Amino acid sequence: MTDTLLAGLPGFDPGWVWLVGAGPGDPGLLTLHGVNALRQADVVVYDALVDSRILEHAPKSAEMIYAGKRGGRPSPTQRSITLRLIELAQAGKRVLRLKGGDPFVFGRGGEEALALTEAGIPFRIVPGITAGIGGLAYAGIPATHRDTNSSVTFITGHSVTGEVPDNLNWQALATGAPVIVLYMAVKHMGRIAAKLIDGGRNPDDLVAFVSNAATAKMRVVECRLSDAGETAKDVEAPAVIAIGPVVGLRASLDWMGRMNDGRVLVSPDTAQDAAE
């Protein structure tokens, strides 16, 4: 069946780099293009958030290179990863750069692609399902809903320096985005919540932390924006964070909770709001 599904998909030529998104966690969310790339790769340079079962699609002969970058832990630099991709491609390898989520959504895929362009290395982009959409969906939270929001804003929770981004108009974000989705923001959630509230955001806005989204370890915690900094202290990274009225829909849309005969954590007041 797999060979039939992959029939007609592009060949992976030597000397090329494919930047592939693996999705937010569940191996079933990997695209057919992603499977096709894995099955042809000579080298797989993969991130920390890629499920090990996804790597099993690669040939046993493929070289597996871990390039995980986790906050607060020893990690390879972005420059060293990029240089390795170039060196491997110049050696005539089929190089697969495998990233969690989507390589072009806070995944540094753009940086790597620009470096490959400068080095004259041909590449292909294979999009993946980003955690800000797929991870929230597994938690029963739609990124958009006709009755609540016609727009959504995606924000990274830290800048290149690792601090809260200082080049954002927090007032505009606080008042102009009905729904905000934050990546990599657990560490700085207290400061981010304060900036949003100072910018005019309702401190009673609903917030959901989706930790280890779309995996067997997924855990969802809800709170108010005013309590988000304190709540974040008990949240395990990685987590994607949703702020806004769509969080209230989760009480009806928590399909994973129903499948598992259990409920993930919801504070009593937010549950009451959803019921009303």
Automatic annotation (TrEMBL):
Transmembrane segments: none annotated. GO terms for biological process: cobalamin biosynthetic process; methylation; siroheme biosynthetic process. This is uroporphyrinogen-III C-methyltransferase. Pfam families: TP_methylase. Keywords: Cobalamin biosynthesis, Methyltransferase, Porphyrin biosynthesis, S-adenosyl-L-methionine, Transferase. Pathway: Cofactor biosynthesis; adenosylcobalamin biosynthesis; precorrin-2 from uroporphyrinogen III: step 1/1; Porphyrin-containing compound metabolism; siroheme biosynthesis; precorrin-2 from uroporphyrinogen III: step 1/1. Residues 17-228 form the Tetrapyrrole methylase domain. It comes from the Bacteria. Its EC number is 2.1.1.107. The gene is cobA. The keyword S-adenosyl-L-methionine applies.
